[in-house]
UniProtKB/TrEMBL annotation:
Stretches assigned to the UvrD-like helicase C-terminal domain: 295-566
UvrD-like helicase ATP-binding domain location: 2-294
Transmembrane segments: none
CDD domains from the UniProt entry: DEXQc_UvrD
Family (UniProt): Belongs to the helicase family. UvrD subfamily.
Organism placement in taxonomy: Bacteria, Pseudomonadati, Bacteroidota, Flavobacteriia, Flavobacteriales
Binding site residues for ATP: 23-30
Protein name: DNA 3'-5' helicase
Gene3D superfamilies: 1.10.10.160, P-loop containing nucleotide triphosphate hydrolases (3.40.50.300), PCRA, domain 4 (1.10.486.10)
Alphabetically ordered keywords of this record: ATP-binding, Helicase, Hydrolase, Isomerase, Nucleotide-binding
Highest taxon above the source species: Bacteria
Amino acid sequence: MEIYNQEQKEAIRFEGKHLLLLAGAGTGKTKTIVGRAAHLIENGTPAEKIQILTFTKRAASEIVERVKAGIPGRNAQALNGSTFHSWCNQLISSFPNLFGAANYTVIDSDDQLSLMKMACGKDKTIYGQIRIKPQEILDLFSFARNTRTNLTETIRKQMFRGKDDVETNEEIEELRPVLELLIKEYQALKMEQKYLDYDDLLLVVGNRLHKDEEARAILSKAYDYILVDEMQDTNPLQWYLLAPFENICKLFCVGDDAQSIYSFRGADFKNVHSFGERVQDSEVKKLNKNYRSTQEILDVSNWLLERSPIIYDKKLTAHRGPGKMPVVVNVSNQFEEANYIAEKILTDFREGGKMFSDFLVLSRSQYYTKPLQAVFLQKKIPYETYGGRKFLEAAHIKDLISILRVVNNPSDQIAWMRYLTFAHGIGEVRASNYLKEIMGVDSVKLDGDFLKSIIPGKEGEKIKTYYNAVQNNKGNVRQAIKELYKEMELDLAFKYAKDWEEKRKGDFPVLELLAEHYSTLGEFITEGILDNSISLGGSPVLEGSKIKTTEHKDHVVISTVHSAKGLEADVCFVLNVSPKTYPSSYSLGSTDEIEEERRVLYVALTRAKNELIITRTTDSLNAHHSNAMNPFSQEEINSAYFLEGLPENLVVQEQPHTTFSKAQDAKKENKIDLDFGFDFS
Ligand SMILES: Nc1ncnc2c1ncn2[C@@H]1O[C@H](COP(=O)(O)OP(=O)(O)OP(=O)(O)O)[C@@H](O)[C@H]1O
């Protein structure tokens, strides 16, 4: 049974049209979304007419499960929660005629890069005029679409740090037409092969709804309410998608401007402030009390935010009152840090009655946590990682999926290339020749025998067998994967001989299990990619190849701060809050970037309920030499450092007395104790 305070109840029972709940960390925004959905269902709104939108699949499922748990019977069963991308993808497949994109394949960032490389390679005289990598062109294109900014201004912002002088303008004017050609070529390749990239998903739906009265009429029968979590992180493209829904249904959005950490995806926290003006018939409400943390944790968080030149007007007070002082641990290196954390967890687990799931470890990047993961493995501390490279993006998984993809969409040239070059002996040049023949044949004639007829020898035989394994089991995705894996196993083991047994083999049974939830190949490929994608912060369960550690229900979570939004834990470790990291020395030239990083740290600090432990390495405090990449002096780095000037009364400082350091001698000298060591009798 959830308990709500008066302000939360007012939001939950809101009778007006659209509402924005703008409130600080831990004030119960997510809880209020749960309450709102339950209230609507209990008062007669069919659950399938409510859509919950969040930034991660994990957050979406959590909200949906909580609503379902509070409503007896089957009334809430049809409640749907998804990410923006996944929702658009569902709309595209539920209304195939309306959006006209049902048989398109969604491609991930690796595939986008392959396609952009093809676009750049098409006419070398064009690409040769600029010195920009294909990935950078993709980033520019995506930034422009997500922020809905024109190409000139995108180039200026992203490549010239916003400079607007004669020289810069001349350079932009040289780059712009070339980039336009390349982006158009990329777009044409995409359409030719029936691909949609992530941004396309939102645009396909958004464009249709903006331009087509009938589309709005159809969707107004499908939705009564849309509930959006983390509204501060919606970028202009997501606003564009949501705008038509103002007239289709009622919007209920929650957000916190101080937790906006997605400006690299085009979000601007200031947008949330204009909600009242942008959305007709809307109201903005606030929540004031923090229910998550004790006051000492909030004091440090408030202090951090008050030091910002941006006024957030958010002083959090703890409903729970006082508790333990936050601790700053000064470690000399990463292994000391890792051992300190592991020892603390093990002691609290063995002697303090805590579970592993009471601990959350937060880091800027997953990469930084590698030594910590090594120590956890060594000390047998179960853990799960959130953020970082995802399961379906691992090379061995992509090899197998490439065959599912070509059976699902025969125009999928990226997948064909991966499939054809997977068989030993076929290089890129030969594969492209086969590809030309494959593209030339009518798709009804395309089958295993055809492939064998154009590809001679053992390779042709193999390619045929793989193709048939999927084709013959098309109606049962799990079976298709099982049969295909049986055929591919030896080749996969050969290709990945170095770490096959330890790291890769175990992923395939999991892939089969995952496939069980999808009824068609297309759904599996698209949804599977979206659900597990790094750039969308998707499901944490099937990450990397460390699937086995997730079998423990009780585990520590190691997360990037970006993937930790909405999470909370009894004890929270925030790693490496050192100079040059918070803020990163690369953002020192830009106030906007520094302030975004301050919010990142703020999100991290406000995850803790009872204990907040901040680590920092003393080696980063050591002398720093400025260089061309990083021209800032030690003074500049120190004065920008977020913990510089942290009042002594807000935290306790600690040096780890670790079992990791060398054994130390006794403090007092003893008298020698030597007897004969035997009995003379
Ligand atoms: N009225 C209440 N009574 C008791 N506990 C509450 C109440 N409201 C919220 N909480 C608790 O406070 C914690 C934070 O709530 P929630 O996660 O909904 O906040 P939030 O505003 O979404 O936080 P953030 O933006 O920091 O992720 C949760 O543990 C929640 O159960």
